[in-house]
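Section 5.1 Outputs to date
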Amino acid sequence: MNFSLWLWPYGRWGGFEAMGRATRRAEELGFTGVSVSDHTITTTGEDEWPDWSVLSAYLATQTTTIRILCSLVIPYRPVFPTAKQIATLDVLSRGRFTLAAAVGWLRPEFEMLGVAYEQRGSITDEYLRAMKVLWTEDEPVFSGRHVHFSDIVFEPKCVQEPHVPIWVAGGSGRGPIERLLELGEGWMPMGGDTGTELRDTIARIKEQASARGRDPEAITFRYTIGVGRVNAALASISKSIEVGDPAALGADGTPEGVAAEIARFEAAGFEELAINFSGESASEVMEQLDWFGEEVMGIL
Protein backbone atom coordinates (compact mmCIF):
# COMPACT_ATOMS: atom_id res chain seq x y z
CA MET A 1 0.00 0.00 0.00
CA ASN A 2 1.25 3.47 -0.94
CA PHE A 3 0.45 6.56 1.11
CA SER A 4 0.00 10.20 0.19
CA LEU A 5 -0.08 13.14 2.62
CA TRP A 6 -3.19 15.25 1.99
CA LEU A 7 -2.33 18.81 2.99
CA TRP A 8 -5.83 20.30 3.10
CA PRO A 9 -7.22 22.08 5.14
CA TYR A 10 -4.58 24.71 4.51
CA GLY A 11 -5.36 27.22 7.25
CA ARG A 12 -3.90 25.00 9.97
CA TRP A 13 -0.37 25.13 8.52
CA GLY A 14 0.43 28.81 8.95
CA GLY A 15 2.27 29.10 5.64
CA PHE A 16 4.08 27.31 2.84
CA GLU A 17 7.17 26.58 4.92
CA ALA A 18 5.31 24.29 7.31
CA MET A 19 3.73 22.43 4.41
CA GLY A 20 7.18 22.04 2.89
CA ARG A 21 8.57 20.61 6.14
CA ALA A 22 5.69 18.16 6.42
CA THR A 23 6.14 17.03 2.83
CA ARG A 24 9.87 16.51 3.29
CA ARG A 25 9.17 14.50 6.45
CA ALA A 26 6.57 12.40 4.62
CA GLU A 27 9.18 11.70 1.94
CA GLU A 28 11.65 10.58 4.62
CA LEU A 29 9.03 8.28 6.15
CA GLY A 30 8.33 6.56 2.84
CA PHE A 31 5.18 8.32 1.66
CA THR A 32 5.00 8.17 -2.12
CA GLY A 33 2.86 11.27 -2.65
CA VAL A 34 1.60 14.61 -1.38
CA SER A 35 -1.91 15.75 -2.31
CA VAL A 36 -2.87 19.30 -3.28
CA SER A 37 -6.52 20.38 -3.64
CA ASP A 38 -8.08 23.07 -5.83
CA HIS A 39 -10.58 25.89 -5.36
CA THR A 40 -10.50 29.52 -6.41
CA ILE A 41 -13.25 30.66 -4.05
CA THR A 42 -15.55 28.62 -1.80
CA THR A 43 -18.75 29.00 0.16
CA THR A 44 -18.08 26.10 2.53
CA GLY A 45 -16.41 27.94 5.41
CA GLU A 46 -12.79 26.98 4.64
CA ASP A 47 -11.26 30.29 3.63
CA GLU A 48 -7.67 29.50 2.63
CA TRP A 49 -6.92 27.89 -0.74
CA PRO A 50 -3.43 28.59 -2.14
CA ASP A 51 -3.09 28.52 -5.91
CA TRP A 52 -2.60 24.89 -6.89
CA SER A 53 0.24 25.52 -9.32
CA VAL A 54 2.28 27.76 -7.03
CA LEU A 55 1.95 25.34 -4.10
CA SER A 56 2.78 22.35 -6.31
CA ALA A 57 5.86 24.10 -7.70
CA TYR A 58 7.04 24.99 -4.20
CA LEU A 59 6.66 21.40 -2.99
CA ALA A 60 8.51 20.11 -6.06
CA THR A 61 11.51 22.29 -5.19
CA GLN A 62 11.48 21.07 -1.58
CA THR A 63 11.59 17.34 -2.38
CA THR A 64 13.33 14.80 -4.58
CA THR A 65 11.27 11.60 -4.80
CA ILE A 66 7.72 12.18 -3.56
CA ARG A 67 5.02 12.64 -6.22
CA ILE A 68 2.90 15.78 -6.30
CA LEU A 69 -0.72 14.88 -6.99
CA CYS A 70 -3.14 17.73 -7.63
CA SER A 71 -6.92 17.31 -7.61
CA LEU A 72 -7.66 19.94 -10.23
CA VAL A 73 -11.13 21.11 -11.27
CA ILE A 74 -10.62 20.97 -15.02
CA PRO A 75 -13.49 23.22 -16.27
CA TYR A 76 -12.48 26.20 -14.12
CA ARG A 77 -9.70 27.45 -16.41
CA PRO A 78 -8.94 27.71 -20.14
CA VAL A 79 -7.20 24.64 -21.46
CA PHE A 80 -3.98 26.30 -22.69
CA PRO A 81 -2.66 27.81 -19.43
CA THR A 82 -3.70 24.71 -17.48
CA ALA A 83 -1.93 22.35 -19.86
CA LYS A 84 1.15 24.63 -19.85
CA GLN A 85 1.27 24.77 -16.04
CA ILE A 86 0.97 20.99 -15.75
CA ALA A 87 3.69 20.30 -18.32
CA THR A 88 5.99 22.89 -16.73
CA LEU A 89 5.40 21.38 -13.28
CA ASP A 90 6.30 17.96 -14.66
CA VAL A 91 9.55 19.40 -16.00
CA LEU A 92 10.29 21.21 -12.71
CA SER A 93 9.60 18.09 -10.64
CA ARG A 94 11.55 15.84 -13.03
CA GLY A 95 8.51 13.73 -13.81
CA ARG A 96 6.81 13.63 -10.42
CA PHE A 97 3.46 15.27 -11.19
CA THR A 98 0.11 13.45 -11.31
CA LEU A 99 -3.13 15.12 -12.41
CA ALA A 100 -6.31 14.10 -10.60
CA ALA A 101 -9.02 15.42 -12.91
CA ALA A 102 -12.23 16.59 -11.24
CA VAL A 103 -15.37 18.04 -12.81
CA GLY A 104 -16.22 20.17 -9.75
CA TRP A 105 -19.37 20.41 -7.67
CA LEU A 106 -19.66 23.92 -6.17
CA ARG A 107 -22.23 25.68 -8.36
CA PRO A 108 -21.57 29.23 -7.00
CA GLU A 109 -17.90 28.88 -7.91
CA PHE A 110 -18.81 27.98 -11.50
CA GLU A 111 -21.16 30.96 -11.68
CA MET A 112 -18.53 33.40 -10.40
CA LEU A 113 -15.99 32.03 -12.87
CA GLY A 114 -18.45 32.27 -15.75
CA VAL A 115 -18.36 28.52 -16.51
CA ALA A 116 -21.52 26.59 -17.39
CA TYR A 117 -22.20 24.26 -14.47
CA GLU A 118 -24.42 21.93 -16.51
CA GLN A 119 -21.66 21.44 -19.09
CA ARG A 120 -18.84 20.72 -16.65
CA GLY A 121 -18.66 17.02 -17.57
CA SER A 122 -18.40 17.56 -21.32
CA ILE A 123 -15.93 20.42 -20.81
CA THR A 124 -13.75 18.21 -18.62
CA ASP A 125 -13.66 15.38 -21.15
CA GLU A 126 -12.89 17.66 -24.07
CA TYR A 127 -10.21 19.59 -22.20
CA LEU A 128 -8.48 16.34 -21.21
CA ARG A 129 -8.51 15.14 -24.82
CA ALA A 130 -7.10 18.47 -25.94
CA MET A 131 -4.40 18.43 -23.26
CA LYS A 132 -3.24 15.01 -24.42
CA VAL A 133 -2.83 16.41 -27.93
CA LEU A 134 -0.89 19.43 -26.63
CA TRP A 135 1.37 17.23 -24.53
CA THR A 136 2.16 14.61 -27.17
CA GLU A 137 2.01 16.06 -30.69
CA ASP A 138 4.70 18.20 -32.29
CA GLU A 139 2.10 19.97 -34.43
CA PRO A 140 -0.99 19.85 -32.21
CA VAL A 141 -4.38 20.06 -33.90
CA PHE A 142 -7.74 19.73 -32.15
CA SER A 143 -11.32 20.63 -33.00
CA GLY A 144 -14.14 20.32 -30.48
CA ARG A 145 -17.16 22.08 -29.10
CA HIS A 146 -15.34 23.92 -26.33
CA VAL A 147 -11.81 24.28 -27.72
CA HIS A 148 -10.05 24.10 -31.06
CA PHE A 149 -6.54 24.87 -32.25
CA SER A 150 -4.09 24.38 -35.10
CA ASP A 151 -0.88 26.00 -36.37
CA ILE A 152 0.48 26.43 -32.84
CA VAL A 153 3.63 25.57 -30.94
CA PHE A 154 3.19 24.12 -27.45
CA GLU A 155 6.27 23.62 -25.29
CA PRO A 156 7.51 22.29 -22.97
CA LYS A 157 6.15 18.79 -23.23
CA CYS A 158 5.75 16.59 -20.16
CA VAL A 159 8.80 14.70 -18.92
CA GLN A 160 6.70 11.58 -18.33
CA GLU A 161 5.71 9.67 -21.43
CA PRO A 162 3.39 9.93 -23.11
CA HIS A 163 2.26 12.57 -20.57
CA VAL A 164 1.55 13.02 -16.86
CA PRO A 165 -0.71 10.31 -15.38
CA ILE A 166 -4.37 11.31 -15.32
CA TRP A 167 -6.42 10.02 -12.41
CA VAL A 168 -10.17 10.58 -12.48
CA ALA A 169 -11.78 11.96 -9.33
CA GLY A 170 -15.46 11.24 -8.77
CA GLY A 171 -18.08 8.70 -7.85
CA SER A 172 -19.02 5.35 -9.29
CA GLY A 173 -21.59 6.65 -11.78
CA ARG A 174 -21.39 6.20 -15.53
CA GLY A 175 -19.74 9.58 -16.18
CA PRO A 176 -16.61 9.20 -14.02
CA ILE A 177 -16.16 5.54 -14.93
CA GLU A 178 -16.44 6.21 -18.65
CA ARG A 179 -14.00 9.12 -18.25
CA LEU A 180 -11.58 6.78 -16.50
CA LEU A 181 -11.87 4.05 -19.13
CA GLU A 182 -11.32 6.48 -22.00
CA LEU A 183 -8.95 9.06 -20.57
CA GLY A 184 -7.53 8.01 -17.20
CA GLU A 185 -4.89 5.86 -15.56
CA GLY A 186 -6.33 5.95 -12.06
CA TRP A 187 -9.57 6.38 -10.09
CA MET A 188 -10.20 8.38 -6.90
CA PRO A 189 -13.78 7.80 -5.67
CA MET A 190 -15.42 10.09 -3.14
CA GLY A 191 -17.16 7.91 -0.59
CA GLY A 192 -18.57 4.42 -0.80
CA ASP A 193 -18.70 1.16 1.14
CA THR A 194 -15.36 -0.62 0.94
CA GLY A 195 -17.00 -3.92 1.91
CA THR A 196 -19.13 -4.30 -1.22
CA GLU A 197 -19.79 -1.21 -3.33
CA LEU A 198 -16.26 -0.02 -4.03
CA ARG A 199 -14.81 -3.52 -4.23
CA ASP A 200 -17.43 -4.48 -6.82
CA THR A 201 -16.92 -1.24 -8.75
CA ILE A 202 -13.17 -1.82 -8.93
CA ALA A 203 -13.77 -5.33 -10.23
CA ARG A 204 -16.21 -4.00 -12.83
CA ILE A 205 -13.76 -1.31 -13.95
CA LYS A 206 -11.06 -3.91 -14.44
CA GLU A 207 -13.40 -6.11 -16.48
CA GLN A 208 -14.45 -3.21 -18.70
CA ALA A 209 -10.84 -2.07 -19.13
CA SER A 210 -9.83 -5.57 -20.22
CA ALA A 211 -12.73 -5.68 -22.69
CA ARG A 212 -11.38 -2.48 -24.25
CA GLY A 213 -7.92 -3.92 -24.63
CA ARG A 214 -6.44 -2.09 -21.67
CA ASP A 215 -4.29 -3.64 -18.97
CA PRO A 216 -6.52 -3.56 -15.87
CA GLU A 217 -3.52 -3.92 -13.58
CA ALA A 218 -2.11 -0.65 -14.93
CA ILE A 219 -5.01 1.34 -13.40
CA THR A 220 -4.33 2.82 -9.96
CA PHE A 221 -7.10 2.94 -7.35
CA ARG A 222 -6.86 5.46 -4.52
CA TYR A 223 -9.08 6.39 -1.59
CA THR A 224 -8.92 9.30 0.86
CA ILE A 225 -9.12 8.51 4.57
CA GLY A 226 -8.86 10.35 7.85
CA VAL A 227 -6.56 9.20 10.62
CA GLY A 228 -7.79 10.04 14.09
CA ARG A 229 -11.03 11.92 14.66
CA VAL A 230 -12.44 13.54 11.54
CA ASN A 231 -11.42 17.19 11.56
CA ALA A 232 -14.23 19.71 11.32
CA ALA A 233 -13.24 21.10 7.92
CA LEU A 234 -13.14 17.66 6.29
CA ALA A 235 -16.48 16.68 7.79
CA SER A 236 -18.02 19.96 6.64
CA ILE A 237 -16.97 19.71 3.01
CA SER A 238 -17.85 16.00 2.88
CA LYS A 239 -21.37 16.78 4.07
CA SER A 240 -21.73 19.65 1.62
CA ILE A 241 -21.14 17.40 -1.39
CA GLU A 242 -23.36 14.64 0.00
CA VAL A 243 -20.92 11.77 -0.01
CA GLY A 244 -21.20 10.96 3.68
CA ASP A 245 -18.49 11.28 6.29
CA PRO A 246 -15.01 10.23 5.18
CA ALA A 247 -13.55 7.10 6.66
CA ALA A 248 -11.92 7.65 10.05
CA LEU A 249 -9.28 5.15 11.08
CA GLY A 250 -7.75 4.11 14.32
CA ALA A 251 -10.73 4.41 16.63
CA ASP A 252 -8.93 2.30 19.22
CA GLY A 253 -5.84 4.48 19.02
CA THR A 254 -3.39 1.67 18.31
CA PRO A 255 -1.07 1.13 15.34
CA GLU A 256 -2.49 -2.39 15.03
CA GLY A 257 -6.03 -1.00 14.80
CA VAL A 258 -5.08 1.42 12.04
CA ALA A 259 -3.15 -1.28 10.17
CA ALA A 260 -6.18 -3.57 10.32
CA GLU A 261 -8.39 -0.86 8.83
CA ILE A 262 -5.85 -0.20 6.08
CA ALA A 263 -5.92 -3.89 5.23
CA ARG A 264 -9.65 -3.55 4.60
CA PHE A 265 -9.04 -0.93 1.91
CA GLU A 266 -6.29 -3.03 0.39
CA ALA A 267 -8.63 -6.03 0.23
CA ALA A 268 -11.17 -3.87 -1.62
CA GLY A 269 -8.59 -3.24 -4.33
CA PHE A 270 -7.04 0.10 -3.41
CA GLU A 271 -3.31 0.57 -3.93
CA GLU A 272 -2.91 4.04 -2.45
CA LEU A 273 -4.45 5.88 0.48
CA ALA A 274 -4.39 9.65 0.80
CA ILE A 275 -4.07 10.39 4.50
CA ASN A 276 -5.76 13.40 6.07
CA PHE A 277 -4.54 13.77 9.63
CA SER A 278 -6.90 15.30 12.16
CA GLY A 279 -4.44 17.79 13.64
CA GLU A 280 -5.63 21.38 13.72
CA SER A 281 -2.14 22.91 13.69
CA ALA A 282 1.12 22.19 11.93
CA SER A 283 2.69 20.78 15.09
CA GLU A 284 -0.24 18.43 15.70
CA VAL A 285 -0.15 17.13 12.13
CA MET A 286 3.59 16.61 12.33
CA GLU A 287 3.17 14.54 15.50
CA GLN A 288 0.51 12.40 13.84
CA LEU A 289 2.59 12.07 10.69
CA ASP A 290 5.58 10.80 12.68
CA TRP A 291 3.37 8.39 14.63
CA PHE A 292 1.82 7.01 11.45
CA GLY A 293 5.14 6.66 9.64
CA GLU A 294 7.04 5.10 12.51
CA GLU A 295 4.36 3.04 14.27
CA VAL A 296 1.80 2.13 11.62
CA MET A 297 3.89 1.87 8.45
CA GLY A 298 6.46 -0.01 10.51
CA ILE A 299 4.12 -2.99 10.96
CA LEU A 300 2.52 -3.05 7.51
